[in-house]
Write a sequence for this structure.
């Protein structure tokens, strides 16, 4: 069978939600692969936060375009170890002009994190392994760029379109929680 640019190069869909996944919201499930340095991911975040959906966030740092992406993913995971993943997630995506380390420390302090623990945690092998696990699952699911959203098992690349937003507004499959 000949291939084209529309041939899906996947070996699996995204993994089902697990106990250590980052979930929040109430509504249809959106599995989101994103990069904290990606301005398209920031725009997707702004659109999704207004919807009644359950967001499952997975890291997909695109280091070739965003050199701080992996370090930012580690910072979000380190914040998560202190119960502040989503607060750091929102902070990073909503203020992308300040992503260097001194700004990360200010964010961590503003979020009430233990700064010494934050610094140690963001350099832990377990944090790096978590980010890499998310990235590999995205590759297996066919993610090639960010943002990448899976809705009802279908991959939607790029900022959510009006058509996708309409699908999300009309869908009624709730999955609740925040972690």
């Amino acid at each position: 069978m000949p291939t084209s640019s529309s041939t899906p190069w996947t070996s699996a869909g995204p993994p089902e939600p697990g106990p250590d996944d980052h979930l929040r919201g109430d509504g249809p499930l959106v599995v989101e692969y994103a990069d904290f340095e990606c301005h398209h991911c920031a725009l997707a975040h702004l659109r999704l936060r207004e919807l009644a959906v359950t967001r499952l966030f997975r890291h997909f740092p695109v280091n070739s375009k965003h050199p701080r992406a992996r370090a930012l993913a580690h910072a979000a995971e380190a914040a998560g170890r202190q119960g502040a993943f989503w607060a750091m997630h929102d902070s990073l995506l909503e203020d992308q002009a300040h992503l260097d380390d001194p700004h990360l420390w200010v964010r961590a302090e503003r979020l009430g994190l233990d700064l010494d623990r934050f610094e140690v945690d963001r350099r832990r092998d377990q944090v790096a392994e978590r980010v890499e696990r998310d990235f590999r699952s995205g590759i297996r699911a066919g993610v090639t760029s960010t943002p990448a959203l899976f809705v009802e098992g279908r991959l939607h690349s790029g900022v959510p379109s009006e058509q996708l937003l309409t699908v999300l507004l009309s869908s009624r499959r709730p999955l609740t929680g925040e972690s």
